[in-house]
């Protein structure tokens, strides 16, 4: 064969041609630009329009940021420094920074306390968020809420310590009694915890000077700190409540189911602001006359109820998405309701629900700004009610709103990025 | 079985309800603090200063009452209330007395069941406009856009005034003082209306106060005063007479500086002696110590001194006494006899 | 849940069985739950009953029929300060619905466009849309409302800037005045047609002013609406005819000029016959007079709700499109459809099924978020009934109950209607 080959074909290449680079216009940046930006005439026009919009935005924004000044203590001084050039008076942020963060009533000498609590947040939260960290670090996560309470509100350390002990005792009792009956365990745990808390209350009254930080009243909370407190507390409280509501809605007991359905549909049918009005205006009618419990506490209760209804719906979706076989598997193994829920159903349902829960959490965190409508001085309230009204900074608003946007954006964007990461981590199916 | 449990529960709930609420005075004494509802922040009337300490004309009344009852002017919890929450806070018992420049009106008294114990400030509603608008009288405001803070009687007065004068009105309801300021300064409304005391306070805070003028008309009567719940008359009496003690103190020349001196040695004016507790048992009639009025006056001085410190001509707000002068000087402040 | 291994023992009922026997246990739990609920609510109600002030003033909705006494700026139905609180509340409710409807429409349009463009093959557009979605989704809507309000108050000129011989600002095209009180649009009205208003206000012979001419009643808009409906059905008929032709001959006749003519000609004719005129806003006194005023509170609220919710809808749309398996797209491409037709004929109709349920909840969110109108002074229900009426009458309990009842009813009705629609478009599975 090879002979014929030689005869019939005049030239045969013996070696492979090295791959030539593609033509200049078909590769690299130019190719990419052509494919992605100017593939059709319509695409080209759209690209140009988009580029113009971007240029227009940046050409307004960049000089404003670059020329902006951080000096001066009033709008007049700031204008003087700028000398008529475009630029932001970021000095308002420097000057009112502590108000934006802590509100105007938190004693300035104590600002280190919420700051420390915030810093510790970064130690307490990662063990719960990232599974690769050593498990023992979760201890700190468990301690953190009590520590943060003590740091922010002050008072004797006995109060949070006993609050924690009450929980621990309750849990231990539950573990002991649970073997006999789940409900009995729950009840016994509640009783044990209440006893400890009552005892702790007596002790705390008696030794109110032990390890005492200067107490700060709830109504002194303000600024971004208030948003963070409301967001974190309400999300953590509404999660267990939401799970209970979701289970209740699936329950076979008509009373429990009916109550859960009515509760969830009611809460989801009204705007949060009306619930805040209830907390602010009419809740006091329904409490014993003379009880004067904090507005912040009332608001926390209302926002928690609000969020739990939404979380319940997300978890209900997760529960519904589980194949029926999972429920049947639990039953066939002879697990009772509590066991099959805890060991089989909920771990899977919660995993499915994570993106939804995070969405609710982010939404809730954003909704904490609504407390400004009931004249609480959160970040928005401080800007609307206090700084915009001040004579020294009259006519300054963009700097403040941009700062507020930036703070919320960082937190919310961070959380949603984390949830996407977590979703990838938890993906256990085969792809 | 279920029904019996149900009835048992209801009986329990009823039992819990049976504990009648004690008199407000006893509550306050037991608590050791007076819960006083004030404005969220209005220059001159109630405002936390840089260190978070509450100051102002209404605040001074709260402190005087606390001093009269508890002997300690700092034994006050100041609860800031909005236009929306003030009445429910009082009605629900969250606060004992509301001193939040609240206008005394018929319906608030008769329908909402509150007792106004007196008028600590006679006010009236006015307008502020930019000078460049060229308006010199409120009657020229036909068709104007007017900013109003919601939740006050000013809204009703404004609508009434424009209707009576057959003018059309474009109202812009505003939630906070800051927004009123922004909108008014930007020209989004032609005029801004509120109580004249408030107008004076906001005008001084504008960048160029001289570019704005307060129109001469006063379109309403705004008697502002502290109020308490209907039904606890003894408690109302305490607030009322503490306030009158301040007014009477001005009339008889009792001041912050000389009150101790006058109380130490009974003078020759029996009325002063009765007020300061050196003669008679007025305090006991109210259920208070005999030096109640002395304590109240010692905090911030008499009515005139409180006015001068918070609203008067030496302050930024720069208000004349006007109707709020004593009756002896042509005003309306008049304390009934202490006897 | 339990398995009986033997026949149930025939012993009678004992108290202990209430806890141990699963047959009775559920009743025990429910009885406990009922009792706890009754205790709790009984406690709440008993506190309210014991309240000294509530005891005297009682719960009384009579205030609704009393004169409201305050002025409302945006009045879709006639209202004076002498009208009742109930009427003020109704106006508030209508205003709520107006802004909710406007925002739902624009948010959907914005969301669908942004959602599709996020999947565009144009890199710049894709990134721009991602930035839009992320920025608006991650910042509270309250801040957006306040920002847009600040923008409209401080960036646009006050009406006084339009005054004088050499004004700082002039109306756009001489027709539309953009001020920091709102945007004044020209208002169309008819001079012929049914229901002539006999004595139009300006009988002083000045026939350049719009009032000088005969003004026909606004019922004439019904005529216009009827004509538009006629055009709609005519266009549908034309399309059906074209489809029939296409099925018969394989060629689709060109119909765009017929469609255009069917829409434009009858409308133009009707408007001409009715004598359409434009009432152009004019600066008189303190404000522009005439025309339609879209107040800046409405615009700020509408715009903020639209762009905020639009970002969420964009995500829903994107998720819906991505959920359609690529086999569908490839099959359509194999049939020779061009990308835009693939989107319109194959992907979107299927994606719609996935998009609609979250879209419903976005609409409900918009409606609930309109309650934030209170921060910009837009007179919605929260601002009238839950705001000024509450403040003026002090009837907090009654006002807030009514307020919640309105939103609750509205939400439940909308979700019922939307769920019914959703069920009708859902994939029928057997």
Automatic annotation (TrEMBL), chain A:
CDD domains registered for this protein in UniProt: TM_PBP2
Topology class, membrane = Multi-pass membrane protein
The cross-references to SUPFAM superfamilies, in alphabetical order and at most eight, read: MetI-like
Per its UniProt entry, which superkingdom is the organism in?
A: Bacteria
Can you say where in the cell this protein is located? Cell inner membrane; Cell membrane
Tell me a GO biological process for this protein: amino acid transport
The answer on whether this UniProt entry bears the keyword Transferase reads no
Q: Where is the ABC transmembrane type-1 domain?
A: 224-419
Checking InterPro entries in the record gives: AA_ABC_transptr_permease_3TM (IPR010065), ArtM/GltK/GlnP/TcyL/YhdX-like (IPR043429), MetI-like (IPR000515), MetI-like_sf (IPR035906)
**What residue ranges are annotated as transmembrane?**
41-66, 110-129, 136-152, 158-175, 182-204, 224-247, 259-287, 299-322, 343-364, 396-416
Q: What keyword terms does UniProt attach to this protein?
A: Cell membrane, Membrane, Transmembrane, Transmembrane helix, Transport
Q: Which GO terms describe its cellular component?
A: ATP-binding cassette (ABC) transporter complex
According to UniProt, the name of this protein is Inner membrane amino-acid ABC transporter permease protein YhdY
Organism whose genome encodes this protein:
Jannaschia rubra
UniProtKB/TrEMBL annotation, chain B:
| Keyword Membrane attributed | no
Which Pfam families has this protein been placed in? Answer: SBP_bac_3
Q: What are the Solute-binding protein family 3/N-terminal domain coordinates in residue numbering?
A: 33-262
Task: Cite the entry's keywords alphabetically.
Answer: Signal, Transport
The signal peptide stretch is: 1-22
Gene Ontology terms describing biological process:
amino acid transport
Q: Which family does it belong to?
A: Belongs to the bacterial solute-binding protein 3 family.
Q: Which PANTHER family match?
A: AMINO ACID ABC TRANSPORTER PERMEASE (PTHR30085), AMINO-ACID ABC TRANSPORTER-BINDING PROTEIN YHDW-RELATED (PTHR30085:SF7)
Q: What is this protein called?
A: General L-amino acid-binding periplasmic protein AapJ
The source organism is Jannaschia rubra
Q: Which gene encodes it?
A: aapJ
Automatic annotation (TrEMBL), chain C:
- Transmembrane helix: is it a keyword of this entry? yes
Cite the ABC transmembrane type-1 domain residue spans from the record.
93-418
Q: Which residues form the signal peptide?
A: none
Q: How does it sit in the membrane?
A: Multi-pass membrane protein
Please report the name of this protein according to its UniProt entry: Putative glutamine ABC transporter permease protein GlnM
Q: Which family does it belong to?
A: Belongs to the binding-protein-dependent transport system permease family. HisMQ subfamily.
The biological process GO terms on file are: amino acid transport
Per the record, GO CC terms?
ATP-binding cassette (ABC) transporter complex
Q: Where does the record place it?
A: Cell inner membrane; Cell membrane
Lineage runs:
Bacteria, Pseudomonadati, Pseudomonadota, Alphaproteobacteria, Rhodobacterales
PANTHER family in alphabetical order: AMINO-ACID ABC TRANSPORTER PERMEASE PROTEIN YHDX-RELATED, MEMBRANE COMPONENT OF AMINO ACID ABC TRANSPORTER
- What are the protein's GO molecular function terms? transmembrane transporter activity
Q: Does the keyword Transport apply?
A: yes
């Amino acid at each position: 064969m090879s002979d014929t080959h030689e005869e019939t074909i005049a030239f045969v290449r013996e070696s492979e041609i090295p791959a030539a680079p593609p033509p200049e216009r078909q590769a690299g940046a130019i190719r990419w630009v052509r494919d992605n930006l100017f593939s059709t005439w319509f695409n080209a026009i759209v690209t140009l329009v988009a580029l113009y919009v971007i240029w227009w935005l940046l050409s307004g924004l960049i000089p404003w940021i670059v020329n902006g000044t951080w000096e001066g203590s009033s709008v007049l001084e700031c204008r003087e420094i700028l000398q008529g050039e475009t630029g932001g008076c970021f000095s308002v942020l420097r000057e009112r920074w502590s108000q934006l963060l802590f509100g105007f009533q938190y004693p300035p000498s104590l600002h280190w306390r919420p700051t420390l609590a915030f810093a510790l947040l970064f130690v307490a939260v990662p063990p719960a968020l990232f599974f690769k960290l050593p498990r023992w670090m979760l201890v700190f996560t468990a301690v953190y809420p009590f520590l943060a309470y003590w740091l922010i509100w002050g008072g004797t350390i006995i109060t949070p310590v006993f609050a924690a002990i009450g929980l621990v005792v309750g849990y231990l009792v539950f573990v002991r009694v649970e073997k006999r009956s789940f409900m009995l365990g729950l009840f016994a745990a509640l009783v044990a915890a209440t006893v400890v808390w009552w005892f702790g209350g007596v002790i705390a009254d008696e030794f109110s000077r032990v390890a005492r930080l200067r107490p700060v009243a709830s109504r002194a909370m303000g600024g971004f700190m208030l948003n963070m407190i409301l967001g974190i507390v309400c999300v953590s409280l509404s999660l267990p409540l939401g799970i209970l509501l979701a289970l209740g809605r699936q329950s076979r007991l008509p009373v429990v189911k009916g109550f859960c359905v009515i509760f969830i549909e009611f809460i989801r049918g009204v705007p949060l602001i009306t619930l805040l009005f209830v907390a602010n205006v009419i809740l006091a009618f329904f409490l014993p006359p003379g009880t004067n419990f904090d507005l912040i506490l009332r608001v926390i209760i209302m926002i928690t109820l609000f969020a739990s209804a939404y979380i319940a719906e997300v978890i209900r979706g997760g529960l519904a998405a589980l194949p029926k076989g999972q429920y049947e598997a639990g039953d066939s193994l002879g697990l009772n309701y509590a066991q099959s829920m805890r060991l089989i159903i909920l771990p899977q349902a919660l995993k499915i629900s994570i993106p939804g829960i995070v969405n609710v959490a982010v939404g809730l965190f954003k909704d904490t700004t609504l407390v400004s409508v009931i004249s609480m001085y959160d970040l928005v309230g401080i800007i609307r009610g206090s700084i915009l009204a001040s004579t020294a900074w009259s006519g300054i608003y963009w700097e403040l709103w941009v700062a507020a946007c930036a703070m919320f954006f960082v937190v919310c964007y961070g959380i949603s990025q984390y949830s996407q990461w977590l979703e990838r981590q938890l993906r256990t199916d085969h792809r | 079985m279920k029904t019996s449990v149900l009835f048992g529960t209801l009986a329990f709930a009823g039992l819990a309800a049976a504990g009648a609420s004690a008199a407000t005075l006893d509550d306050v004494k037991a608590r050791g603090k007076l819960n006083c509802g004030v404005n969220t922040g209005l220059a001159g009337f109630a405002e936390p200063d840089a260190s978070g300490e509450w100051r102002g004309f209404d605040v001074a009344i709260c402190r005087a009452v606390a001093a009269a009852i508890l002997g300690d002017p700092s034994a006050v919890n100041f609860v800031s209330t909005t236009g929306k929450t003030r009445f429910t806070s009082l009605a629900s018992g969250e606060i004992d007395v509301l001193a939040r420049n609240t206008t005394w009106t018929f319906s608030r008294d008769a329908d909402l069941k509150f007792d106004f114990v007196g008028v600590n400030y006679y006010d009236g509603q006015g307008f502020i406009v930019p000078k460049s608008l060229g308006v010199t009288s409120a009657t020229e405001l036909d068709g104007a856009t007017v900013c109003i803070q919601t939740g006050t009687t000013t809204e009703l007065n404004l609508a009434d005034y424009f209707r009576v004068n057959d003018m059309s009105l474009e109202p812009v309801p505003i939630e906070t003082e800051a927004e009123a300021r922004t909108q008014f300064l930007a020209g989004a409304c032609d005029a801004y209306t509120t109580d004249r005391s408030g107008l004076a306070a906001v005008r001084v805070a504008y960048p160029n106060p001289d570019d704005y003028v307060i129109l001469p008309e006063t379109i309403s009567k705004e008697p502002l005063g502290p109020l308490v719940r209907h039904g606890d008359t003894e408690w109302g009496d305490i607030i009322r007479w503490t306030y009158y003690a301040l007014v009477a103190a001005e009339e008889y020349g009792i001041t912050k500086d000389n009150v101790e001196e006058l109380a130490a040695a009974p003078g020759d004016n029996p009325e002063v002696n009765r007020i300061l507790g050196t003669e008679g048992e007025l305090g006991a009639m109210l259920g208070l110590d005999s030096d109640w009025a002395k304590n109240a006056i010692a905090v911030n001085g008499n009515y005139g001194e409180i006015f001068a410190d918070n609203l008067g001509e030496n302050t930024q707000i720069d208000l004349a006494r006007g109707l709020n002068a004593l009756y002896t000087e042509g005003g309306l402040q008049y304390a009934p006899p202490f006897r | 849940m339990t398995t009986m291994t033997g026949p149930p023992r025939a012993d009678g009922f004992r108290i202990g069985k209430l806890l141990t026997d699963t047959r009775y246990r559920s009743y025990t739990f429910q009885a406990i739950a009922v009792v706890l609920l009754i205790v709790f609510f009984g406690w709440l109600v008993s506190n309210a009953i014991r309240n000294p002030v509530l005891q005297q003033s009682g719960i009384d909705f009579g205030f609704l029929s009393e004169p409201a006494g305050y002025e409302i700026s945006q009045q879709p139905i006639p209202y004076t300060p002498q009208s009742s609180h109930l009427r003020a509340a109704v106006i508030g409710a209508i205003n709520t619905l107006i802004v909710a409807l406007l925002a739902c429409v624009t948010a959907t349009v914005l969301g669908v466009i942004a959602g599709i463009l996020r999947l565009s093959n144009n890199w710049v557009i894709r990134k721009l849309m991602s930035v839009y979605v992320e920025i608006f989704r991650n910042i509270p809507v309250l801040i957006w409302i306040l920002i847009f309000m600040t923008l409209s108050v401080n960036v646009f000129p006050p009406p006084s800037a339009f005054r004088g011989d050499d004004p700082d600002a002039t109306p756009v095209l001489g027709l539309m005045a953009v001020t920091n009180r709102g945007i004044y649009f020209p208002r169309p009205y008819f001079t012929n047609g049914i229901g002539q208003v006999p004595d139009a206000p300006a009988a002083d012979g000045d026939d350049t002013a719009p009032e000088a001419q005969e003004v026909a009643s606004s019922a004439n808009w019904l005529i216009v609406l009827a004509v538009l409906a006629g055009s709609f059905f005519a266009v549908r008929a034309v399309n059906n005819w074209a489809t029939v032709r296409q099925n018969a001959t394989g060629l689709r006749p060109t119909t765009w000029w017929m469609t255009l003519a069917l829409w434009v000609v009858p409308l133009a004719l009707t408007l001409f016959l009715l004598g359409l005129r434009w009432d152009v806003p004019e600066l008189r006194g303190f404000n522009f007079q005439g025309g339609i005023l879209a107040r800046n509170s409405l615009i700020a609220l509408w715009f903020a709700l639209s762009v905020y919710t639009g970002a969420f809808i964009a995500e829903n749309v994107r998720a819906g499109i991505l959920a359609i398996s690529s086999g569908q797209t490839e099959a359509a491409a194999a049939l020779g459809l061009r990308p835009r037709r693939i989107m319109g004929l194959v992907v979107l109709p299927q994606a719609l099924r996935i998009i609609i349920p979250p879209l419903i909840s976005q609409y409900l969110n918009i409606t609930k978020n309109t309650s934030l109108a209170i921060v910009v002074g837009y007179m919605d229900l929260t601002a009238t009934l839950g705001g000024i009426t509450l403040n003026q009458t002090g009837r907090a309990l009654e006002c807030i109950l009514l307020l919640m009842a309105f939103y609750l009813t509205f939400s439940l009705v909308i979700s019922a209607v939307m769920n019914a629609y959703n069920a009708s478009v859902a994939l029928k599975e057997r």
